Amino acid sequence: MDVTGLLSDSFERVNEGVHQVLEGIDEAHLTFRPDPEANTVAWLVWHLARVQDDHIAEVAGTDQRWTADGWFQLFGLPFEPSAIGYGQSPAEVGDVTAGAELLRGYFDAVHLVTRKYLAGLSAADLDRVVDDRWDPPVTLSVRLVSVVSDDLQHVGQAAYVRGVAERGR
């Protein structure tokens, strides 16, 4: 497997995890919070999709699916279109009450763009500096691994919250 194949496999694991978390989930479990400041399944899935959408669009030089495809309007959230969830308050987390089909639809649109982008990369592309605000500057490979890491953590958290909700705790 080449480097881009490895990255593609990693993003497929995020895809599988998101689909597992959303499969058959009811509305109450999507918005369940183990405590008043905890993240919900709905917010976690929305956030991981927003981060992936934002970061992939930036490195690919394309528009985000969130705004270009009208997902921002469909979700109807009280946030700026640029919001990805970073630094949001517990009240803002609670504002994400989207259903499983809407969350899955947005995530799938983002995942499709990610797959297409990764398919066009070569190993040499991964050394390109994509963010020089850091020391050392961030390369494409570091950015992509960061997105995978963040997404896998959040999908794991969503699975945990769903499990707690379903057990009635």
Would you write up a description of this structure?
The structure is a single chain. The chain is built from 8 helices and 2 strands; from the N terminus they run αααααααββα. The longest helix is centred in the last third of the chain and has 27 residues, at 140-166. Helix 1 runs antiparallel to helix 7 (100-119), helix 3 (41-60) packs parallel to helix 7 and helix 3 runs antiparallel to helix 8 (140-166). Helix content is 62%, strand content 3%. The model has no long low-confidence stretch (mean pLDDT 96). The protein is mostly helical and 169 residues long.
Low-pLDDT runs of 5+ residues are none
User: Rg, please?
Assistant: 16 Å
CATH architecture: Up-down Bundle
Task: Describe the strand arrangement of the main beta sheet, using strand numbers.
Answer: 1-2
Helix and strand composition category: mainly alpha
End-to-end C-alpha gap: 43 Å
Overall morphology: globular
CATH homologous superfamily descriptor: dinb family like domain
Count of distinct strands: 2
What's the tally of helices? 8
Calculate the mean pLDDT score and round it.
96
CATH topology value: Four Helix Bundle (Hemerythrin (Met), subunit A)
| CATH class wording | Mainly Alpha
Order of helices and strands: HHHHHHHEEH
Oligomeric state: single chain
Helix content: 55-70%
Largest sheet: 2 strands, antiparallel
Per-chain topology:
Layout: H1 3-22, H2 27-30, H3 41-60, H4 65-68, H5 71-75, H6 90-94, H7 100-119, E1 129-131, E2 138-139, H8 140-166
Antiparallel strand pairs: 1-2
Helix pairs in contact: 1-7, 1-8, 3-7, 3-8
